[in-house]
Design goal:
alpha+beta; 7-stranded mixed β-sheet; 5-stranded mixed β-sheet; 22 strands; binds zinc ion
Length: 408
């Protein structure tokens, strides 16, 4: 095997920023632009970040170096190595697209040091926001992307109608990320990817994660997305198990998304972990309440005084809220603020009740797993098992949204 070592330090000094414009997608108006989708969209998924050393292997590799605008083809099996530790650049500068690699076979193998994965489509290498590191981006068609994602975000052995519901949710989420250019906006500069494969966005896999079942679910719903009553793509969220009722985005993240409705869910109870419980001491509670007020997550007249004694109880009128009292002050707080502060491992979901232990500590007793917004995966599993199809499953969790097909 022949190595081709590429050192970017000189090239980066040129400072040429390749635009993302070669991508077919440059839409900004998500509402109207979904009408312009003509074929299967291609998306750019960041599959690894901040690597020192990357090797890409493929047959008859075609390699483009964007900074020097040079292209080269190699015949036979070839490995190209990127030594990113030799890249010299400032920390936190905007990611630069360095190289694109493709193979006529459509399949590339990427060695990321500890792990090796095979990917359909192209592999792009960009600089990372960390100095002397590179990111790996997979440019892949939507249905191939979803075929790997379903094995990671759901379970490839689940009934195909549950997988199809998940495919529509994940496709809508990914298209929204592409068209809104949300990731570039958050970075404050154009980045060469649409979303990342991580729990922050949604987790996709490599070519070997795909199964006939996940491929069938992706292809069987090709082009299908959910839109709201204004015809807009919304970020469609999903979670493992709501525990009895779903939540609105604004109850968890504070920004509302048009088209959501919280629904009762009688389907998920018999699946997944049955319940969870955690205790929080009065000292931790006091710190938490002060943090929540400082962050603007709830609005009492004044902050609690040290040792004043904070009382927390379920709100009588809403299962999503708590009533926090101390001295002459009482204010309502969304339950999700607890999970944001104490973390996902201590609070498995936003669906819980509060009681007091004999020690005076508060006890949180909950159901469900995940944020509780949108599609409940355990509920989708049960509905599919009972014979509901993916359209019925989606109609249950997104009653105000409509299923449309935006490409064939
Ligand atoms: Zn549920």
């Amino acid at each position: 095997m022949v190595w081709s070592r590429i050192k970017f330090s000189m090239l980066i000094a040129v400072g040429f920023l390749p635009a993302h414009a070669q991508s077919a997608i440059s839409f900004t108006d998500v509402a109207s632009k979904i009408k312009e989708v003509t074929g299967i969209p291609t998306l750019r998924v960041r599959v690894a970040r901040a690597l020192e050393d990357i090797k890409v292997t493929g047959t008859d590799l075609a390699r483009t170096l964007h900074l020097s605008k040079s292209s080269k083809s190699f015949s036979g099996k070839k490995t190209v190595r990127f030594e990113c530790s030799k890249v010299s650049r400032k920390v936190n500068s905007a990611p630069l697209l360095l190289a694109s690699l493709g193979s006529p076979t459509g399949l590339l193998s990427v060695d990321k040091g500890q792990t090796q994965n095979k990917y359909l489509g192209k592999i792009l290498i960009s600089t990372s926001t960390d100095a002397q590191r590179c990111d790996v981006i997979n440019e892949i068609d939507m249905e191939s992307y979803l075929s790997t994602l379903l094995a990671k975000e759901m379970n490839s052995k689940w009934p195909v109608e549950a997988l199809k519901a998940q495919a529509v949710a994940a496709r809508t989420y990914a298209l929204h990320k592409i068209y809104s250019k949300e990731v570039s906006k958050l970075h404050g500069s154009e980045v060469p990817f649409d979303l990342e494969s991580s729990e922050k966005h949604q987790v996709s896999g490599g070519f070997l994660d795909e199964t006939p079942n996940t491929r069938a679910a992706a292809m069987g719903t090709a082009g299908e997305v959910l839109v709201n009553d204004r015809g807009e793509l919304s970020p469609v969220f999903f979670h493992a198990k709501c525990g009895g009722h779903t939540r609105l985005p604004e109850q968890v993240w504070q920004n509302s998304v048009h088209g959501y409705q919280a629904v009762e869910d009688p389907y998920c109870n018999d699946h997944g972990k049955p319940s969870w419980r955690t205790e929080i001491s009065t000292e931790r509670l006091e710190k938490f309440v002060n943090w929540s007020k400082d962050k603007g997550y709830f609005h009492p007249k004044r902050a609690p005084r040290a040792g004043e004694g904070i009382k927390v109880q379920d709100d009588r009128w809403s299962t999503n809220r708590l009533r926090v009292s101390y001295g002459d002050t009482t204010a309502l707080m969304e339950k999700s603020v607890f999970r944001r502060y104490f973390g996902r491992s201590e609070l498995r979901s936003n669906n819980f009740h509060i009681r007091y232990a004999a020690t005076g500590d508060i006890v949180l007793e909950g159901n469900g797993h995940g944020h509780g917004v949108g599609l409940c995966q355990m509920g989708a599993l049960e509905m599919a098992t009972r014979g509901f199809n993916h359209k019925q499953i989606l109609a249950h969790y997104f009653p105000k949204m409509k299923l449309v097909k935006v490409y064939q």
